[in-house]
Amino acid sequence: MARALALLAVLPTLALVLPTLALVLPTVALAADARGPSPISAIVIPMDQPSEALQLRLETYMNESLQEYAQFKLRRSDELFGLPADEDAQVALKRAENGYTESREAFVGRQYDDAELKLRNTIKEFNRAIPALKGCGHLCDAIAMYAACLYMRGESEEAKLQLLDLISLAPTKLLDPKVYPADFVALKRQVTESRNAALRGNVLVKSKPAGARVFVNGEFQGFTPMTLPVLPIGKALVRLERPGFMQAAVLVDVTPEDSEVTQTLVPSSTYSTFDDLLEKLAGEALKDKGGNAMLKIAGTLKLERAIVAVTTEVPNTNSTQLHLTLYELKSGRRLGVRKATVQGDEYGQLKGEIGRMVNALVNNAEAPVERVVQSTDPLDRKAGMEEWNQEDRGGRTSTKERKRKGGDPLDSVDGTDSW
């Protein structure tokens, strides 16, 4: 009776407390979720020049795998280090665009002599602005108008060479018949179908450092060093990108004979500072223990986790050794490690191999750990049939134990021993 009265006394208090808890608990849950996904990225540290060419490729493949996990907020290399623009090229591009506008006005007004002079200067400015170009754009328009001016002046052969450059830069570009004379449009068609337009050449593209992305006329091709095969003769706009380095590009002359282009990339001040930490970070990663370098990188790049990959060339094997470690950067805690040796990427197999390694690292780190609690029940974890396969098939007491206890003297005798 006393307990019942005490319970009745508490109930009004609970009625007041429960609504308050109902308001507080969602707030706690929201606060837990407000933290959001953990910022993560892949950081590849090449320990020698041969493995340097794989750095950006490996980072790209790793980040593509990390992107599949909802618990992470991926920060790609481009976001971490940026792609700094060439300021001189940007200034030249503005001058080129202004020149193009003036040149087009003169050309549309059929003032071909004035247009030719302005177009010649405009094309020079576009050549200075090549690192700032993502595609052919108004450069191709300027080349087309310049070729038309040459043709109108009677320079047909020179006009054909300009048209070859135009066709190689923009094969599908059409000339507006309202702007260009009909006979010039016919000349372009003739050049497109000519034997010269069918010729091809190979260009070997290198960069310092190696491993930069290669774009030709705006389309991604691969990573340096690489050979660009069967390019049409004429001009090709080759652009190079490497996160942390200034954007670079060059207008390549493609000929039937093989040619080579080498571009030196200029690092930004931010990347240079980061680059100084890489060697120390590699040492920490190989020791499987974080330190000051890892802590600095966590603060500088605003990352909570990272896959730190140390790469080394295996001498005389044309292969690379990988040491991948998943870390909590601020604490320096290692969450997982994988080691492998890869050999080239001739058939595109490297992306799959890296994806499997990243998935193994993340899944093992994120898998919940099952706690094993020792039970006091002697029959716990017993299915009831374990003893059926025991040695004597007759209960828990084994044959040897029964002998020690003075059991059946005929035990272990099958009745035919004396025969």
- Write down the CATH topology of the largest domain: Rossmann fold
What separation lies between the terminal Cα atoms?
82 Å
Shape: elongated
Q: Name the strands of the widest sheet in spatial order.
A: 2-1-10-11-12
pLDDT below 50 for ≥5 consecutive residues: which ranges? 3-8, 20-33, 368-377, 379-406, 412-419
Q: N-to-C SSE series? A: HEHHEHHHHHHHEEEEEEEHHEEEHH
Number of domains: 3
CATH superfamily of the largest domain: TolB, N-terminal domain
Note the beta-strand portion.
Answer: 15-25%
- Biggest β-sheet strands, sense, barrel: 5 strands, mixed
Content-based structural category: alpha/beta
**How many beta-strand segments?**
12
- Helical run tally: 14
Written account of the structure:
- The chain is an alpha/beta fold.
- It has three domains: about 40-80 and about 270-365, Rossmann fold, CATH 3.40.50; about 85-195, Serine Threonine Protein Phosphatase 5, Tetratricopeptide repeat; about 200-265, Sandwich (Immunoglobulin-like), CATH 2.60.40.10.
- Helix content is about 45%, strand content about 20%.
- It is built from 14 helices and twelve strands.
- Strands 2-1-10-11-12 form a five-stranded mixed beta sheet, with helices on both faces. A four-stranded antiparallel beta sheet has the order 5-4-7-8, covered by helices on one side.
- Strand 7 (about 235-240) and strand 8 form a beta hairpin.
- Helix 3 packs across helix 13 (about 350-365).
- The protein is elongated.
- Mean pLDDT is about 85; it is low at about 5-10, about 20-35, about 370-375, about 380-405 and about 410-419.
